[in-house]
Amino acid sequence: MNIRDLEYFYQLSKLKSYTDVAHYFQVSQPTVTYAIKRLEDHYACQLVEKSSSNRVLHLTQPGKVLANHAREVLIEIEKTEKAVERSKKNLLRIGLPPLITSDIMKKFGTHDEELEIFRQSQLVQLGSRDLMRLLVCGDLDFSLLGSLEPISHAHLTSQLLYKKEFFVIVSKDHPLADRKEISFKEVLEETFILLDEHHVHMTAFKRLNARFDDLAQSTVVLTDSNLVLSFIEENLGIGLMTDLTLFPEYPNVVKIPLVEEEKTVFYISYAYPNEGEPQALLSSFIERLEKCEK
Fold this sequence. Notes:
By secondary structure, this protein is of the alpha/beta class. The protein has ten helices and eleven strands. Strands 3, 4, 5, 6, 9, 10 and 11 form a seven-stranded mixed β-sheet that branches. Strands 1-2 form a two-stranded antiparallel ribbon. The termini are far apart.
């Protein structure tokens, strides 16, 4: 079977027009027609029913089955091509969420062999949600990740490294600063200073807020954790973060645990595509990660 034929068919299932598919691939319309005919001959069944104007009336049942599988096949082929190209260049693309990476690097030594992977890799620094998407699409060979549940994905090998707890973060001058624990219900009318939707922190906030009918509506959304902490330190609002972010340069912020029934866990893991064994350098890095103090 020709992969290009499968690409034509998959686009036909979406665009419903032989003419539009031909324009999409910049080929002649007969090229698309012959490709579909070859697939129908291969599977010995009709895949599409079309009108006289070369528009697809609908896919047959076998056509629907093939379209669903074609999407998965084409995604896997694209991921494979990316991985092979990186392998040919001896290049690793590694995802590093800044907050998690900063915390993990504190646990590393300064030995050259422990840092070698960073010199030989292309480093992608984004929030965990974006890194997870890139990993699944085949654009990364490995990533550290933060999540609200243990990672489980059919196409990824993953391992939990350790867990952190979310806290309500306030200025030491805030009236709540002396509290030993707090319910989210008590801070619904506060202004929240939050990391944006590219970070798992926003999802944690939305989940807690949903338990109280989304009554917390006053929010300031930022992209940088240092700016979030600066705003909180100036008592311009409160935050919802893990203590990964409580850097020494912000001594005037206080973390308050959530009450037991509202505690939210931040899972810190690594993951990589499970198509094959990691390269030797990556395997060594993984071994070192797993020795990190929990």
